[in-house]
Write a structure and sequence with these properties.
This protein is α+β, with helices and mostly antiparallel strands. It contains 16 helices and 14 strands. Strand 10 (343-345) and strand 11 (351-354) form a beta hairpin.
Length: 427
């Protein structure tokens, strides 16, 4: 007996009906496959062109793309349903013509059906759609709109299921900041600077504004009632491009003066009303995370914010540069004064630190682990504050304090404020 023989009697009518339906299904499969490539290959320029058109086809394409997740679900459901039906009909069509013996039944149907489905239902329509996605998306917009209505319940189930699976997968893939930091420590970065940058990126979302701000005592501000000559003098002396302006004191911030706004009026007399150029101040809470503040800076297109406490009192000032320095390190420009550096390393291995340096930055510079001094720092945030916590009293010039194998010498005072501190590390 032959492996494959043609049937003696073939019902031509039934054969034509089955073949016709199979042909329609393969066309539908081709349209679904082509739609996947056509719609999701449209560029921003293509979409701009569609938005400028007023014809119905363009409106349909834009409407479908408004909910791209549902469009993709519609295409996937349609394509799979059609392909399943097509496989069933194709095997039935073949059985109407041929009789198989043994394994040849499976092999013949698998090879023929798979070849036809891949060639006409997948490869050719996708290649055609990739060649001209704009034209194909316009052509297929109506069939896809009909398909979206027909398979709406199935597409909804698919979307919800995939969303649930995605949430489960994202939870299982979560990694703690501590684990990520450990991984960076173990990684062989190319240089110390790269290692510091990676660490800065990891801890970026855990840093509060209060940790990087310029404290209240270091803010250079302008009095609201100052004349224009005084304003120009302060601008020249400080070199700042943005300066807060206050009324009675720094708790009464009236606005922020952008020096570039003064350029058209640089030669005006001392009675010039420079206050009219003030920009509205932006206030942020001291415990706001700096990654959230960066997003606000980007959205509002500003570079500076006034930091306030829970009572609305001014605690400090934070700039975009302060935030970026948390990742890339110290940024210096032509207006920065070398004498204003927060620390200096001496030849004998000791350091001279400015009292306003943050404790975390101090720990990083001397090579200690973060929060080494957490058990003694209390509510202090700066090195000067740490001195007060260690002494439990107001520090004085010449005081010597010790903690965690580090010796602190109060080198200079600025009134009642600790100015410079000499640091020696034992061993």
């Amino acid at each position: 007996m032959d492996a494959i023989t043609i049937r003696e009697y073939i019902d031509l009518g039934e054969l034509l009906v089955t073949g016709g339906i199979a042909l329609i299904l393969i066309i539908m499969s081709a349209m679904a496959s082509g739609s996947e490539v056509a719609f999701f290959s449209l560029t921003h320029n293509d979409i701009d062109k569609l938005e400028s058109r007023s014809d119905a086809g363009a409106r349909r394409v834009l409407e479908l793309l408004e909910n791209s997740d549902r469009l993709l679900a519609t295409i996937l459901v349609t394509n799979n349903l059609v392909n399943i039906c097509l496989v069933i009909l194709a095997t039935q069509f073949i059985d109407m013509i041929f009789i198989f013996s043994g394994i040849y039944d499976f092999l013949f149907k698998t090879v023929v059906v798979t070849f036809l489905l891949l060639l006409f239902g997948e490869i050719m329509p996708k290649v055609l759609s990739q060649t001209n996605p704009m034209r194909m998306s316009l052509f297929l917009s109506m069939p896809m709109k009909v398909a979206r209505w027909v398979v709406y319940p199935f597409a909804t189930i698919l979307m919800r299921t995939s969303s649930h699976v995605s949430r489960i997968a994202s939870k299982s893939a979560e990694i703690s900041i501590e684990e990520l930091a450990d991984a960076v420590d173990l990684a062989e970065a190319g240089s110390e600077e790269e290692q510091k940058m990676l660490s800065g990126i990891i801890t970026f979302g855990q840093t509060e504004v209060v940790e990087i701000m310029c404290s209240r005592v270091d803010i250079t501000g302008l009095e609201y009632e100052a004349n224009y000559e005084e304003v120009r003098k302060i601008i020249v002396e400080t070199g700042y491009s943005r300066i807060p302006v206050y009324g009675e004191d720094l708790d009464d911030i009236k606005g922020v003066l952008y020096v570039k706004d003064l350029l058209p009026y640089i030669n005006r007399s001392s009675d010039f009303k420079w206050q009219e150029l003030l920009r509205k101040p932006y206030f942020v809470p001291e415990h706001m995370m700096i990654d959230d503040l960066l997003k606000e800076f980007q959205k509002k297109k500003i570079h500076i914010a006034i930091v306030v406490d829970e009572y609305g009192a001014t605690q400090g000032l934070v700039s975009l540069e302060d935030i970026l320095e948390e990742v890339v390190g110290e940024i210096s420009d032509e207006s920065d004064d070398e004498e204003e550096r927060l620390y200096e390393r001496l030849g004998d291995g000791s350091y001279i630190f400015d009292g306003k340096i943050h404790i975390g930055e101090f720990e990083r510079i001397i090579g200690f682990e973060e929060e080494t001094f957490a058990d003694v720092e209390g509510h202090a945030e700066t090195l000067a504050g740490l001195m007060m916590e260690l002494k439990r009293d107001l520090p004085r010039r010449g005081d010597e304090l010790k903690s965690h194998g580090v010796k602190f010498f109060i080198a200079t005072m600025d009134g009642r404020r600790v100015d410079k501190i000499k640091v020696e590390i034992d061993g």
